[in-house]
Each structure stands twice: as C-alpha cells, then as structure tokens.
Amino acid sequence: MSILVLAEHHDGALAGATAHVVAAAQAIGGDIDVLVAGENVGAIAEAAAKLDGVSKVRVADNAAYAHLLAEPTAALIAELAGDYSHVLACASTTGKNVLPRVAALKDVAQISEIIAVESADTFKRPIYAGNAIATVQSEDALKVITVRTTGFDAVGEGGSAAVEAVDFVADNAQSTFVKEELAQSDRPELGAAKVVISGGRGMGNGDNFKLLDGIADKLGAAIGASRAAVDAGFVPNDMQVGQTGKIVAPDLYIAVGISGAIQHLAGMKDSKVIVAINKDEEAPIFQVADYGLVADLFEALPELEQKL
Amino acid sequence: MKVLVAVKRVIDYNVKIRVKPDNSDVDLTNVKMAMNPFCEIAVEEAVRLKERGVATEIVAVTVGPKAAQEQLRTALALGADRAIHVETDERVESLGAAKALAKLVEEEQPGLVILGKQAIDTDNNQTGQMLAALTGLPQGTFASEVVIDNDKAQVTREIDGGLQTVELSLPAIVTTDLRLNEPRYAKLPDIMKAKKKPMDVKSPAELGVEVASKVKLLRVEPPAERQGGVKVGSVDELVDKLKNEAKVIS
User: Fold this and answer.
1) Are B169 and A308 within 8 A, CB to CB?
2) What is the pLDDT averaged over residues A92-96?
3) Are A263 and B13 a contacting pair at CB < 8 A?
4) Which of B20, B126, B177, B223 is the most buried (most CB within 10 A)?
5) Which keywords fit this entry according to its UniProt record (chain B) (predicted)?
6) Which phi and psi (to 5°) does residue A2 adopt?
7) pLDDT at residue number A192
8) Mean pLDDT in residue range A105-112
9) Contact flag B161-A94 (C-beta cutoff 8 Å)
10) Residue A227 banded pLDDT, cuts 50, 70, 90
11) Which of A93, A121, A138 to mutate to test the interface with B (most CBs of B within 10 A)?
12) Which residues of B touch A92 (CB under 8 A)?
C-alpha cells in the first residue's frame, strides 16, 4: 500500500495539520508520500520532508496551483492517484473543497472527516453533528479520505525524505483567483490551540468580546465564538466553533455565554476539560461541562482575568 | 438562465437523534423530518436570483424516497417553478446523488446549480464538488456571496482564516454556506399554489445511473458520554479546580 497526503499550507509555511494527517496515514500503514502543491512552495516542501514517517515529498510548484483552486488541484491529484491506494488530506476548507472532486474524477466514494482508523479500508467518522459515530468500510480500490486532525496526534520532526518535482501542469480555464481577505490575529490558530475561550450570544455585542482578550493572553488561548455570536455580527465567521465552523479539541475549552446547542457541541465536545460560564443554570452546556459556573459573565470574566 | 437547486430530506436539526439498539443505524421512525438547512439557503439564493431578473426558471430536484416529495413541495412553495424527484429507497450517499444530478444537469442544461455545502445527517460535504467533477464544471464551495455578471460568477467563499473570492465561468456549481442569506418562510397561499406546480418523477434506472452507496455502513454507535461535571460556587473555586484538580492551567 502507498498513501499520498496533500500538504496543507498557509502564508508560505507548512500547516501543523499536515503532521496530524501523516499520523493518520501511519495508522493505515504503508509508504507515505506528501504532495506539496502551490506556487513558490520550496520551503514548505523542505518542512514536509522533515516529518517523521514520510518517504518522499512530491512538489508541484506552478502558478496553476496558486491558492490551491479546486479545479487544477483535483486534476493534479487525480493524475497522481494511480500510484496510490489512499489519498488523504486534512478536513480543512481546502481538503473539503478538493478531495470530493478528486474522488468523483476517479469514480470512487470519498470518506469525510475520519477520527479513527480500524483497518486499511475501515474507518470511524462522526455523523449527525457528532451525535453518532459510524464505522464505514470502503470497497473502492482507491480510498479518498479527509482526516479530522483532532482525532490523531501529530507526528514529530526527525525525518529526511527525498524531495522530487512533479511535472504535470493542469490547465484551468474555468476558475480564477480574485482576492483573499484573511482575519489578522496574533493568537494561536483556533484549530491547534491548547486553550480556547469562546463567546456566545450572551456576550451581548462585539465590543464585549474584548473581555475575553486578557484571559486569552494569560492562558495563551485562541478566541472562538458560537454561531449565534457570528450571525449576530459580533465577530467574523472564521472564529465559529461548531458543526458548520471549526472543530476543536483543546486541553481546556471555556464557553462563555453559550447555551450549548447541538451544532456548537459538535465542534468542541472532544475537548479534554470544558468550563461553562452562563447565568442560566438550565443551559444545556452545563450537561457537558466539567466545571460550570452559574454567574453573570460581566462580573465573572474580569474577576477570572484578575485571578489567573 | 435556468437554475437547478438540489434539496435533501433530513432529520429536523432540532431533533436529538437516537441510535438503534442493534447499532445498525440512527433510528428515523416517527422522527420529524425537514429540508436540510443548507438546502433552504440554496433555494433562497435561487429565488433571489429570479427576483433580480438573473434566473428565469428554478428547477428543484432531489434524490431519495417518496416522502422526499414533501421537501420538493416546500421548495415549490418558496418559489421554485417545477420539481424533479429521482425516486429510490436505496441508501444514497454523495457519489450516487451526484451521478443522478449530473444526468439532470445534462438534460436540463442549467446556467447555475446551487446545493447546500453539507447535509446535517451524513455531514459529508461532498455532493456539490462531485457534481462539478462529473459535469466538468467549475465549483464555488462554501459561498457567502454570489454575483452573476454576464457569463461569469464571482463567488466569495468562507475559508479557514477568512474569505476568498473566485471567478467562475458559467455554467458553474455553487454550494451554500450559512451566511449566504436568511431563508424566507413559505406563505400559506404559496403552499396551496405549490400543490399545482409540476413534479416529474424519475427512477435512477431511467437516468441510467446506480445510486446505492458503495461504502458499507458497518456500525453506528453513540459517542462516548462525557462524565457529569460539577458546578462551582465562585471564580476562586473555578481557578483552584483548573489548577489543582484538572491541572490544565498553571
């Protein structure tokens, strides 16, 4: 068996998520190649070559793959897929955009967001917003899979894989990149943070999210939000934790003014320790919280910041 | 321009699901069903395109059991002009649905196809992308804004870290994210009128496609239950527990 892993990268750097996907590939077993596609991605390929367990890094460095648009990137992976039994990517917006297109090009099913590997063809994945776990078996010769990174511990960096260029250039007359507007943040990435503090509708407005800043700074935490807070316009949508936003599993998750709807729980209930601060003692969030504090957040947050 | 909108009948998003005692699947008997929330957004976007004079006809389609006609009627009440039901009792997942939809795209020749980004039952997030691959069309996934300008679509996409805008040649496939729009409710007179709108029923065999899922569902189980937690009386107690009991902060 041999496995191709699509490298995730942002701003010229290899994303930490890739090391989690390589770990999932190791659980399947076999030779692991990493595909780095993009424009000017030499440094990213070198970083990928250092990941433990990687046999080879294949680099498709071409303007055609800038921003990893689905049409050319899927064509590239479909071109290479003949050499592999499995194609893996992390369940990021890039992986989710590209891999189903690859699977259909190869006329095979795609398996989304696996959280465990049972065998080379059998995987566990959450369904119904994480309220059930399905064990599924693929009968296809090629398995195309996205990996939920919180399900697998990242591999380390001690490898020295060979790096080789891929010549194939996909032509794409159908889609062009126009622009990107990325949220600026000095805090850890939401998906990778050890501590996450999230605000919900109870925060009242966007300004009040500043109450979370000091606590986040003291704990080295990322700041998240519930869908209600995003829909109300308090914060941008890339902060959303939930079934339709980001899935996080930090050591500590602090939910402030969040009722705990199914949709939100789907994004954070695998956190090691959950703290809920809410003035409604009937809020469903208290059913999953290890520590619950029934209190007005406008009093509790400043006090918490001071006592940390 | 004709717009094709795909809708799916799923368990209502407010329902707390139950796993069957034999762990074969989730129990859907006597459970409230509804149109998938992302599909509602897709229908709404199509209707708004028609209201702006961009779309001339809206065709709502679904692949699934007979009961899914309820959701097609809902789409008709919201403003779709006619509906096509690909009827099957098979367990259909993304690839099968995409194959049936690809045949309908070939027959109907729409200028734009709108789907939801994912169904809240299987949580796959695949069908739109697969349909784009099978039809050879470009894709604008997780759309929070769609602007049609002559023969191009500018699609703003919700990506990790922010927003990305891409320009697609038409025809194209678009999948909706939550913030694309706020779906309207169907009004009673429109619900009555929808009963008279045309609905074609086709079988997968007539379309010449296999829709049954090739991924075997071996087992479904509830997720590990979290241990019941404790309520603390004060911020001091909370900080103490986090430091000394949970040891997650120092």
Assistant:
1) no
2) 96
3) yes
4) B126
5) Electron transport, Transport
6) -140, 145
7) 81
8) 98
9) no
10) very high
11) A93
12) 160
> What does the pLDDT read at residue B171?
98
Cα A60 from chain centroid?
A: 23
Query: Is B189 exposed, middle or buried, given 0-12, 13-18 or 19+ CB atoms closer than 10 A?
Result: exposed
Q: Which of B8, B105, B125 to mutate to test the interface with A (most CBs of A within 10 A)?
A: B125
Q: Inter-chain contact B160–A191, Cβ cutoff 8 Å?
A: yes
pLDDT digits (tens, 9 = 90+) for A1-42: 899 999 999 989 999 999 999 999 999 999 999 999 999 999
Question: Of the candidates B161, B172, B220, which has its C-beta nearest A10's C-beta?
Answer: B161
Tokens of A160: 């020295």
User: Rounded to a whole number, what is the distance in Å from the CA of A270 to chain B's nearest CA?
Assistant: 9
Which residue carries 């934790």 as its tokens? A241
**Over the stretch B84-140, which tens digit does the pLDDT of each residue have?**
999 999 999 999 999 999 999 999 999 999 999 999 999 999 999 999 999 999 999
- Taking contacts as CB-CB distances below 8 angstroms, the residues of chain B near A107 are 95
Nearest to B157 by CA among B149, A41, A267, B147: B147
Rg, Å, chain B Cα set? 21
Q: Name residue A134's beta-bridge partners.
A: A125, B220
Question: Residue A100 and residue B126: Cβ atoms within 8 Å?
Answer: yes
Structure tokens at B96: 């099968």
